[in-house]
DNA sequence: AAAAACTGTGCAAACGTTCCCAAAAACGTT
DNA sequence: AACGTTTTTGGGAACGTTTGCACAGTTTTT
């Protein structure tokens, strides 16, 4: 059961021209008479000709497709990034292939290699929380695959990167908690492997320092699985409670929602007494109970910027050697501004 | 800047064989001596040979890719369906290309045609709420493109379909509201174009009938944009309130969350007095305030089943003429079971 | 009026596969 | 040793494009 369309050959035959002439007319390049061009275009329109992208790809040795690696599409931050990526990619004639790691290094490597073997023209990637060894990416990069990192980026990889201002976002959230009177502000965060974890920790520390609050390591809990394993998260929350935090700054989308759930499940009586400020791009945050202050990342824009950088690398005539790290500002959405808190 | 790999030709040259022999050894088909095969495989392994999928696609006239059309990936129901699709597709050697309609017919048509021109081997689609004319799909189908519908399906299109038991889900949710003492149960739903809207309305009516409650058309409100336009949704909620509903059965994920938001925004004083039961696959439902009873669809499984059906069509030797409509059961997750309601 | 330059077109190769067909090699039978 | 049969291999076309090169026809230059 196959699906047939007309080809350049069919058009050439029907019009008594050569395939090269037809190709030229269609691509609108090289010298060709206005007349023939019109003739060809009219006929192509009539038979609803669609160039076969596979043949084109084979000839041009590129696929006009971009690979995307994220941990989870069922995560608002990443789905917004993907929307940003698509908005640029489709305009520029690329389509995207999305792969999920579910925070597994093994899965990430498998997916990247699968995409590379599918001859993608470039890769946009946010590393999984497990990832420590990125040599497989270096190899692909060395072979000529353009790569742009976003959100979770490695430190020592010379290519374009796009991140949020994690330091400032963390600082703002922590400061907000302090300014609303909290003195024991804990920090719940992701795997130490991740760049975002380190940067956000710095922001947290800086805010404490500004208000002369001592930094206590025992108030910082890491979740290796980024909230994918609820037991791990519950354990972390449980370990935090004996220190009686009155505020928690949480470092990621999934941890933020997961932590509120864990609190409600294990310690409902204190859940609404602890103020929470966390990174999250969930658009449902207004419905949450207990409510929280959220740090929103410019996810859509991050996707756009990363895609523009990637396409510039793909289409560069000569190897790119100057790389940028773009840092986008986060936005603090304060609890007070969120509707519905009167219910608490 | 291009990215090079070894080809069958390189292997043939290096080993002093012909490309046909190498191809045969690699594909493990046709007669070939054990010895040569081993030799070729060992060498291929050594140089890390990866068949060029584009060349293969051109030759075999298929791309090993499946197109997916959904309204929004930032919707838990759809992202779970996509996970189900991927779980099967990757196992069977296909990759997937995801497109979003954002509930626009124009966008849907554009995306489908773009995918078709990218030579996908088959299409999995949940129609947009605006879609009324599916002739463009009929044309593609007639040309030989296998199509399987899921969730939002057309009535008069002879192909495989996979849906949830919308009637029963709606019945259960409405019955639940009635059994918890509600007597004025309104119904907030999607565009009338959608199959799911009609089926869920029937379930709602059946539950009312069972308990001898009169059906009142004014208690049913349709949202053409499925909650994508918050003004429309707010307007619908506003129009419902004068009838003093004590319960609302809501027909979709986005409407459910949107309605709670609208209630909290416009009528906070009554928001928590109205019981809500709605279709939603959000995993954050436990955090919501006011809380709600939810009808969960087996989204992951729906994706799996749809993909299996699609691949069976793609790989069928002869045109398929017997079609199935698979109906999967929903699950009612009652408010009482949800943690955290003690906060209300 | 011849030479030079330009314009429009066609031929054919190439991209990396798969697979039909034929040729060659290996083996068995008389 | 000659033949037939089977197994293994190679040649080459095809998938649908793009594009360098050559060539014919036209226009411009000298």
TrEMBL record, chains A, B:
Residue ranges of domain HTH lacI-type in the record: 6-60
UniProt KW DNA-binding keyword: yes
Xref: Pfam families: LacI, Peripla_BP_1
Tree of life domain: Bacteria
Keyword DNA-binding on entry: yes
GO molecular function, one term: transcription cis-regulatory region binding
Domain HTH cro/C1-type as annotated: residue spans: 7-50
Keyword tags: DNA-binding, Transcription, Transcription regulation
Protein name, entry field: LacI family DNA-binding transcriptional regulator
Provenance organism: Pedobacter agri
């Amino acid at each position: 059961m196959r699906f047939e369309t007309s080809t350049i050959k069919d058009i050439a035959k029907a019009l008594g021209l050569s395939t090269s002439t037809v190709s030229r007319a269609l691509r609108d390049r090289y010298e060709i008479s206005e007349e023939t061009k019109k003739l060809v275009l009219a006929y192509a329109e009539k038979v609803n000709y669609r160039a076969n992208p596979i043949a084109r790809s084979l000839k041009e040795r590129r696929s006009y497709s971009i690979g995307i690696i994220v941990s989870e599409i069922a995560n608002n931050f990443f789905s917004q990034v993907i929307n940003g990526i698509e908005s640029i990619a489709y305009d520029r004639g690329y389509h995207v292939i999305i792969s999920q790691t579910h925070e597994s290094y093994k899965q990430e490597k498998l997916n990247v290699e699968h995409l590379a073997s599918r001859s993608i023209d470039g890769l946009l990637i946010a590393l999984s929380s497990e990832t420590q060894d990125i040599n497989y990416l270096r190899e692909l990069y060395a072979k000529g695959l353009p790569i742009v990192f976003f959100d979770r980026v490695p430190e020592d990889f010379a290519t374009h990167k796009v991140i949020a201002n994690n330091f400032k976002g963390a600082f703002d959230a922590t400061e907000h908690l302090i300014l609303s009177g909290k003195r024991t502000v804990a920090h719940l965060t992701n795997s130490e492997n991740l760049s975002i974890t380190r940067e956000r920790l710095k922001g947290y520390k800086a805010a404490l320092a500004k208000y002369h609050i001592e930094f206590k390591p025992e108030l910082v809990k890491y979740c290796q699985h980024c909230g994918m394993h609820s037991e791990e998260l519950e354990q972390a929350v449980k370990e935090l409670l004996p220190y009686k935090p009155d505020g928690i700054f949480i470092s990621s989308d999934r941890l933020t929602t997961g932590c509120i759930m864990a609190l409600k499940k294990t310690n409902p009586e204190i859940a609404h007494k602890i103020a929470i400020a966390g990174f999250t791009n969930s658009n449902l945050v207004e419905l949450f109970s207990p409510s929280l202050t959220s740090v929103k990342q410019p996810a859509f824009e991050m996707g756009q910027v990363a895609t523009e950088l990637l396409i510039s690398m793909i289409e560069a005539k000569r190897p790119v050697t100057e790389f940028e790290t773009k840092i986008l500002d986060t936005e603090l959405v304060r609890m007070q501004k969120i509707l519905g808190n009167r219910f608490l």
